[in-house]
Amino acid sequence: MTSTISPPSGPAQKHGPRAGKAPATPEAAESPRPRSTLRSRLGALDVKASPYLYVAPFFILFALVGLFPLVYTFVVSINDWDLLSGAGEWVGLENYAAELTDPYFWNSLFNTFSIFLLSAVPQLIAATFIAALLDQNLRAKTFWRMGVLLPYVVTPVAVTLIFSSAFDEKYGLINNLLQMLDIDPVGWKSEVLPSHLAIASMVNWRWTGYNALILLAAMQAVPRDLHESASLDGAGALRRFVSITLPGIRPTMIFVIITATVGGLQIFTEPKLFNPSSSTLGGPNREYQTTVLYLWDLAFNRGDFGKASAVAWLLFLIIIGVGLINFFISRSIASADAKHHAKPGRAARRAARERKSRRAHEPAARHSAAHDSKEDPS
Amino acid sequence: MKFSRHTRTAAAVAGAAAFALLAVGCSTGASSAEPASSDNPVTLTVTTFGTMGLDDLYKQYESEHPGITIEATNIDTGGNALTDWKTKQAAGSGLADVQAVEEGWLGQVMAVSDAFTDLGQHGAADIKDRWVSWKMDQATDPEGRVIGYGTDIGPVGLCYNKDLFKEAGLPTDRAEVASLLGGDNSTWADYFETGKKYKEATGKAWYDQSGFVWNSMVNQLPEGYYRADGTLDVEGNAALAERWGELAGGAAAGLSAGQTQWDWGKGKAFVDGSFATFVCPGWMLGVVQGQVEAAGGNADSGWDFADVFPGGATNWGGTFLTVPTQSKHPAEAAELAAWLTDAKAQVAAFQAAGTFPSVTAAQGDPGVTGSNALSKFFNDAPVGEILASRAEGVKAQYKGPNDSVIQEQVFGPATIALDKGTDGTTAWNDALATLKNLDLK
Predict the structure, then answer these.
(1) Cβ atoms within 10 Å of B144's Cβ, excluding its own
(2) Which side of chain A, N or C, has fewer Cβ within a 10 Å radius?
(3) Which of A45, A168, A279 is facing B412, going by the closest CB pair?
(4) Is B331 contained in some domain?
(5) What is the CATH number of the domain that holds B407?
(6) Do B134 and B187 have their domain in common?
(7) Nearest chain B Cα to A304, which residue?
(8) pLDDT for A340
C-alpha cells in the first residue's frame, strides 16, 4: 500500500480506493484491470464481516430474549388481553391511560421509590465506611473481606423468610423484644413506614457488603503516596478520607449508585415473600406493594395481561428516565473532575501551600514528619 | 459501517439456525397412540396442592399398571397452585397430565373450559353416579363437557378447644356444644352471642380472625359475590351487607384474635389459647393438626370437632382432578384421574388428610366413619360421621370469574381492618372502593 496510493498517475487512477488492496507487484500495477482472486475477496470479506460475526451471538441472543419480549410486551399492552383467553380487542393507549389514573399504580411507584431511598442511602453510606475500615491494616484481612460478602451469598428467598419471621407482628423476635422494653409492638407488615423499613433492612443486609467490596477495590486503587504525603503534611484520617479517598472513588461510586438504582426500582422478591400468607400482594392495603409486584398481581391474579404490560412499559420508561438523570449527573461530576485535574484541587493546593510554608519555616521538616506519622498511624 | 449483503446473509443464516434449533428443542416427544404397557412405558405427571392425601396412592397405581410411571408435584397452598396453573395455561405448556383444580377457581377454569379434556370421551358417563350430584354438576361446563373428577368436598363443621370451653364454664361435650350453638338451627347470632359470653368469662377471643368466618358466611348464601347468571353483585347486596354487619359486631366485641390466616404464628396461636373456635371444612382438619403439631402440641391440646355450623350446611372448597388438553397421554391420564377419585382412593385420602369424600360410597365406608389418626387427634370425634352429617343439604354456589380475587383482595383487607378495630360501615365502604379500583367484571 505504498507507491500505488501516491499521486494519481495512469492506470492506478482507475483502481480508485481499491488500489491499495491490489498486489503491489509491478505487473499488477501495470495491468489495466487486475482481477481480484478468490483469496483476496475472501480476505476482504473477512476484514469486513468477521467483526460482525463475532459480536453476532450477543445480538442474536439479545434479539431473542431482550428485544422480542420488549416489542411483544408493547403489542400486548395496546390490546385488551386476558391472561387465559388471550388477545381481545385493540384498545390503543387505553391501558396506559387507565394505569396513569389508577391509584394503585401511583401507590406502587411511591412504595418503590420510598423503599429504594430507605435502602440505597443508608446502604451506600454504610458500605463506604465499611470499605474504609477494611482498607486499614487489619489482621486476617481476607477473613473480614469474605465476612462482609457472606450475606450476599445467601439467596434472597432465605433472607426474606428469616426476616419475615423476625418481623412477624404477633410472634416475631423484634416485636417481642420491643414488648420486653415496654414499647408498643410495631405493625411491620401492615403499616407503610415500618414495612418499608423492614424491607429496606433486608435489601441492606444483602447488598451492603457487596457494595463495600466494590468500593474497597476502588479505594485500594487510590495512590498510596497521596495518602502518605497528606499525612506527612499533618492531615488526619478523616481529612484524608474526605479529601483523598472519596474523590478518588467517585467513578466507582457512580457505578454503584446506578446499579443500586436499577436494582432498587425492580425490587420484587423481598416484598413478595415478606408476608406470603397475605391475601393481597404487598400488604393488606398495599402498604409495600412495589411496582413490579403490582405488575405481577395485575397479570397473574387479576389476569389483565394488557394492563400489566402497560405497567411494564411505564416502569421501563421510568428506569430509562432515572438512568438518564444518573448519566447527566455523573457526566457533570466527571467534567468537574477534569477541571480538578487541570487545576490542582483545593485540598491539593492547600497541601502544597502548607508544604512550602513548612519547608520555609521549619528546617527540621523531616523530624516533624516522622513525629506526625507516629501520632497518626494509618 | 453499513451491513454488507454478505453479513446480512450470514446473520439471516445464523438467525434461522437459532430458530430451527429452538423449534427442534420444542418438538420432541410424540403422543402415544397405543395404550401404556411395559413395552410402551408412559410417564404421567400429577400436580396437586395443600394436603390432598394422594401421595401413597401413586405407588399402588404404578404397581397395578405396569408401564406407568407417576411423577408427582405438590404445591404448598391453593393460591400458589392457582398461580402455577394460570401461568402454565397462559404459556400453553408445562401443565401436568393430571392437574388438581380447586373449587374456588372454577370461575376462571370454566372461562377456558375447552383447555381441558372432555372426560365424557373417556368414560365419565359410566362412573358419573359415583359422586354427589352437585359435585358432578360443578365440573360440567355449559356445553355439557365434563372437565374434572371430584376428589373431596368441604362440608364445614366447627372446631373448638374443649379445655378453653371448660375454663369459660361452657359445656365441653361435642353434642352439648352443638346444642349450645343452636343445633340444626344454629344461626350466626347464636354463634356471636355465645362468643360474647366466652369473652366475658375469659377475656380471650372467640375465633382466630374474621376472614374465614366471612368466607363461610358468603359460601353459605344461595348466591355469593356473583348472581347465578354470572353478573357481579356486591354493592347493594342486602344479604352480604347483613352478614357483614353481624361479623363487624363480633369483631367490635373483641371476638376476633386478629391472627394472620394461614400463619397463626407458625401454629402457636392454636396452642396458646388465643382463640377457642375455628371454622373447619373437612380438609381444614388436617391443617389444624399440622399447625398444632408445628407448635409442639398434640391430641392433648384440647381440639375437638362439633356437628354444628352457624347458618346451616355449607361447603368450602374441594378439588377436582382434570386432564388439560396439553397432556400428551389424555387416555392414560383420565384413567389415573378416575382411579384416584374412586371410593377406595378417597377413603385412603381421607385417612391421610381428612379430605372428605365426594363419592357417596366412600362417605359411608367404615374407613371414613370409623376411627383413624385424625379422629384420634380430635379427641376421638367421629370426624367422618360428623362431616357426612354436615354435608347434608349443601348446595353448590356459582363461582364467578373473579370470585377468588374478590375474596382475597377486596374482603381480605376489609376483614383484617375489622380485626384491627375499623368499624363495619367504614370497612364495607372501603371494600366497595377497592372493588371499584380493581375494575373487576
Answers:
(1) 8
(2) N
(3) A279
(4) yes
(5) 3.40.190.10
(6) no
(7) B440
(8) 55
Q: Are residues B287 and B340 in the same domain?
A: no
Domain membership of residue B5 (yes or no) is no
Same structural domain, B257 and B185: yes
Q: Say whether both B169 and B233 belong to one domain.
A: yes
Number of domains in chain B: 2
Mean pLDDT for chain A? 82
Assign B388 a pLDDT band (cuts: 50, 70, 90): very high
Please list every residue in chain A whose beta carbon sits closer than 8 Å to the beta carbon of residue B437. 102-104
Q: Contact B11/A102, CB-based, under 8 Å? A: no
Least CB–CB distance from A171: residue in B10, B268, B417: B268
Interface check A101 vs B, CB under 8 A: no
Nearest CA distance, B119 vs chain A (angstrom):
21
DSSP A243: I
CA-to-CA distance for B411 and B432, rounded, in angstroms? 9
Same domain for B424 and B300? yes
CB pairs under 8 A between A and B: 93
Q: Give the global pTM.
A: 0.78
CB nearest to A280's CB, from B6, B115, B412: B412
ipTM for the predicted complex comes to 0.79
pLDDT digits (tens, 9 = 90+) for A80-110: 999 888 888 999 999 999 999 999 999 999 9
Buried b (16+ CB within 10 A) or exposed e, A86-120: eeeeebeebbbebbeebebbebbbebbbbbbebbb
Q: Are residues B346 and B411 in the same domain?
A: no
Is the Cβ of A85 closer than 8 Å to some Cβ of chain B?
Answer: yes
Residue A170 to residues A54, A166, B277, B440, Cα–Cα distance (Å) = 59, 10, 19, 33
Q: Kindly list the residues of chain B whose beta carbon comes within 8 Å of any beta carbon in chain A.
A: 3-4, 6-7, 10-11, 14-15, 18, 83, 86-87, 89-90, 108, 111-112, 115, 211, 258-263, 265-266, 268-269, 402, 405, 407-409, 412-413, 416-417, 420, 437-440
Instruction: Using an 8 Å CB-CB cutoff, list chain A residues near B420.
Output: 190
Of B108, B260, B437, the CB nearest to A104: B437
Residue B8 lies in a domain: no
Q: What is the extent of the structural domain holding B291?
A: 156-315+397-438
Q: Is residue B239 one of the residues assigned to a domain?
A: yes
DSSP class per residue in A323-357: HHHHHHHHHHHHHHHHHHHHS--HHHHHHHHHHHH
Residue B198 and residue B239 in one domain: yes
